[in-house]
Design goal:
Structural class: alpha/beta
Helix content: 40-55%
Distance between the termini: 16 Å
Number of strands: 12
Strand content: 15-25%
Shape: elongated
Radius of gyration: 20 Å
Order of helices and strands: EHEEHEHHEHEHEHEEHEHHEHEH
Number of helices: 12
Largest sheet: 5 strands, parallel
Oligomer: single chain
């Protein structure tokens, strides 16, 4: 294995498999630094019941599902509340949009017909797939997964839709002091790359940067010296939405593949 990361300081922004990732970075000659931006994602059982019952009572014109796991969890929660059949009936009455092949597969298993499918697994792809439809006066239920999808919600509301968000998972932000430290390290040029494994991590970094007035400087750093490593399309999309252009994304959506890709990037 080549030493593509020789002497490079690489931040791991995730909270899972950090030892494994650190080992891969070290084998490439890099120096791993763990700065978890993930926070905590937990099952939102208490807060989901009211919006689920609202959906059943009022129905909707559209349901947009954005993750396979979130879709399955939502159906599981409805089942636990004894309202699965009513919920699925409401879904089947409406038009359906999906993001990602896992989401499409989850709905296929439930025998739910999909009207609009993204072509690339991204939110931007889903927005493009919905372009031929009118949302004026439409009621749209959007399933999210621990994080908001501001571009999607904004796009729907700007067209005159009423949006209800269903979050089967909720997200507690990471330790602010850790995020602030990473902001300073990036701006002071103390690191070479940040490896993001979820869109939540990207949002967490820039939310704190905005709060402490470092947003523009942070974005400028990613535009020049510092590389953002994104494990997959959704994470890369979040990077682009925050104004990052210097992004490395592996073909295979795996952390190991990202580290190897990062090494190849530096070799070039």
């Amino acid at each position: 294995m080549g030493k593509g990361l020789e002497g490079k300081k690489i931040v791991i922004a995730g909270s899972r498999k950090t030892e494994e990732m650190s080992t891969i970075i070290e084998k490439q000659g890099g120096i791993p630094l763990v700065r978890s931006l993930q926070g905590t994602v937990f099952l939102a059982e208490e807060s989901i019941e009211k919006p689920l019952r609202t959906v059943i009572e009022e129905g909707a014109d559209w349901f947009l599902f954005t993750t396979g796991m979130g879709t399955e969890t939502l159906v599981g929660m409805a089942e636990k509340l004894g309202i699965k059949e009513e919920f699925l009936n409401r879904v089947k009455e409406a038009k359906i949009g999906t993001r990602g092949y896992k989401t499409f597969s989850a709905l296929k298993k439930l025998h739910i017909k999909v009207n609009a499918v993204d072509e690339d697994g991204t939110t931007a792809g889903l927005i493009r797939a919905l372009e031929g439809y009118s949302f004026k006066g439409e009621k749209v239920v959007v399933q999210l997964h621990g994080e908001k999808a501001p571009r999607l919600i904004q796009s729907l509301e700007s067209q005159g839709a009423t949006v209800l968000e269903l979050l089967p998972y909720e997200h507690i932000a990471p330790e602010k002091s850790v995020v602030e430290m990473l902001c300073r390290e990036i701006i002071e040029g103390k690191i070479d790359a940040v490896c993001f494994t979820t869109a939540i991590q990207v949002r967490a970094l820039f939310d704190v940067a905005k709060e402490i007035g470092m947003n523009d400087r942070l974005r400028a750093c990613f535009g020049k010296e510092i590389v953002a490593g994104a494990v997959g399309k959704i994470t890369a999309e979040a990077c682009r939405e925050e104004g990052i252009r210097n992004i490395v994304v592996p073909e295979k959506e795996r952390m190991g593949a990202l580290i190897i890709e990062l090494g190849e990037h530096y070799k070039k």
